Each structure stands twice: as C-alpha cells, then as structure tokens.
C-alpha cells in the first residue's frame, strides 16, 4: 500500500508558536515527505479552534503545488457545505494546474455543530448540500456549459473556462462514516476515505450493487497517529502531550471518541484507542511490529500517517518522518489486502455527535 502524510497544522494551546513559524515548520515536514517518497500530503479543515487548527486546505496545497515535484496533494477533509461549489471548482482546478495534475479531493459531509452555527448552515442540511455541491463541481469540470436547479443551488448558463489538468477531473473521495454517505459515495464512484471505519463494508456492498468494482476506486485510511524515536520512552516523552491535545480537540466539541481519555503521563500506560485505532508510538522496531499487526492484511490502498503532534519540536517530527520512510515504509508498501472486509470499530466517527449520515 502507499503511505501518505496527513499531519494537521495546529498549535499546542498552552505553548503556542507564532503562526508564521508554525507553518514554516510544517512546510519543512511536507517538503521532506516529498523527498522521501510519501505518496500524498493530505490537509484538513476546521474552524474557530483554540489550537488554531488549519482553517483551509486550499492555500496550503496551492503553495505546496509550486514547492513540490512528485507527491500528490489532497484535501482530507474539505467541508464542502461551507464552500460555494463554483468557486471551489475554480480554485481546485487552479491547484491541479499549478501542480501539473497532482490534486485529490476528499470531502466531509458532516461539519461540527459549532462551525455550522457560525456559518449559518443548519447541520441537518450539510449532507444534502455536500452531495448537491459535488454534482455542480463535477459539471464545472466536465461540461462546456450547464444550468443547475436543485434544492440548495440555482445557476443558469455556467461556462467554466479554467479546467483541471486531470481528466475527467481530479479524483474524488468521501470521508463516509455513516451508511447513507457510504452508499451515496459508492453509487457515484467516489473513493472511500475513512476506510476501516464503520461504513467500510456498507460502501463495498453499495459499490458492488452499483455495478462498480474495487478496481474503480481507492480505499484510504483515516489519519493514524505515529511517532518514532530511539527508545519508546523518548517517543512518548516527545508525543504524549500533543496526542492528548489532539484527542482533547474532539472531546471539547462533544465527540464520544474522547471519552475516557487518560491525563498526560497516564496515556502512555493505557490501552486508549482513538476510533478503535491505537497510537503507534515507540522505537522503530516496536512501531513496525505493532503496525504490521494492524495493517499487513488491511483492506487499504493508502495508509495516512499523522506526524508532528501539537507542541512537538520540529527536529523530533522530521526525525520520525525520516525514520519511518527509511525503516518502515519499504515493508509497509508490501502490506494490504484490499479484498478483505474489516471488523469495524465501535466508535469511528470524528465528530461531535457520533456517527453521521
């Protein structure tokens, strides 16, 4: 399977860095990932967070489009309910042009309640808005002229003249964590982000029912937390505070996945999992062995790894990214059995109210 980097640009609230410095450090990580052979840089979107969570993936990807040469660039996830579909289609096409055809879009249909309130989008509408907007985006990319009259959007005689490099358009993925979204994504032929989650098998059933096969799509994991150091104790010393802050972000917004999160100092001793997935923290051999147990036969095309946890030093982050690429990635590329069906974890939705759609 491929191995991607999906580190989120965010601060540790109790020790924040100036944002220009923070972004510089993460960009150094991303450029290193390009050199070391990672398959993707995936960037998310969340708003109004106390950790200054990256609020928009597209500017980051546009900058990386001109600074990288090989690695693919993607949103994971883009909260499409908050975006105008025609403007998004134009901006995404520009990034695909700037990167010479290296853009992917993974979409999320369930923004958090607090975000919806500020953007004045009823949470009950986000699913419908997302899938209708995706139809419009695809029309922008594939049709010379179109009109659209749906439940949420009305346009006449749209002629988008800036088309993406990739044909018919950049690959689309849906971060489906509930059955309704999984079925819709499979029927439309979108790839599955959040693979291994509770909707994985529903997605496969709907894919088969729509006359499509696994050869038509790609299966991408949710972000998996990793940190490697010379010893396991050193790795936890460097990562534990940041991992705790990462999970607390979701706990503060009501996610059941943060229930039972131990305090810093106890997290490393616990069997706490995030959406059914443990933290892969330790020495090279410990991390490799633990990941082999989880992913050697996992039904995935790509494993997404989150390095550089909040508050972590840039040096520790770059060391972990390099060690993984040199010591673990060669074996990881041999892992995977995409035809298998996973046993879904009990709590896999990253959101404030549990499973959505």
Automatic annotation (TrEMBL):
Keywords, comma-separated and alphabetical: Monooxygenase, Oxidoreductase
Matches recorded under Gene3D superfamilies: Luciferase-like domain
Upper lineage: Bacteria, Bacillati, Actinomycetota, Actinomycetes, Streptosporangiales
Source species: Actinomadura keratinilytica
Region (Disordered): 333-357
Amino-acid biosynthesis recorded as keyword: no
Entry protein name: LLM class flavin-dependent oxidoreductase
A Pfam family: Bac_luciferase
Basic and acidic residues bias (residue ranges): 334-344
Keyword field contains Transcription: no
Luciferase-like domain sequence ranges: 23-298
